[in-house]
Specification:
This protein is of the alpha/beta class. It contains 2 helices and 8 strands, in the order βαββββαβββ. The protein is globular and about 40 Å long.
Length: 126
Amino acid sequence: MAIIPVLRCGHIGPSVEFYTKVLDFGRISHADLSDPCHVVLRRAGDVLYLSSHAGDGPFGVRVVVVTEDVDVLFKKFIARGLVPPKRDSPIHHGPTDQTWGTREFAVDDPDGNMIVFAQEADRGGL
């Protein structure tokens, strides 16, 4: 069984560009990117759906992506043009050790959905 999150996008084109060019997702569906649209993405074997259809959920959802090395990944994303938002949130400005045993950083997509990249702080993965 797979559980696949669906993230709502206002405009599919800029969202697909952000996820594929900055966050290392690959596009596995090749539908026309005219709104409304539904796109399937994959990253490290996991699937994520983006949708600009009005009934496909609210904006501002939070999704956690498990990864091996958040420090390296954060530097890679910054080098690709990721700009941390102007908000008072330590995990948006770099990897942070959390009290629950993970090391995390967060990224806001163009529609305000939060993608948290996390690894277990003392073992390199969850």
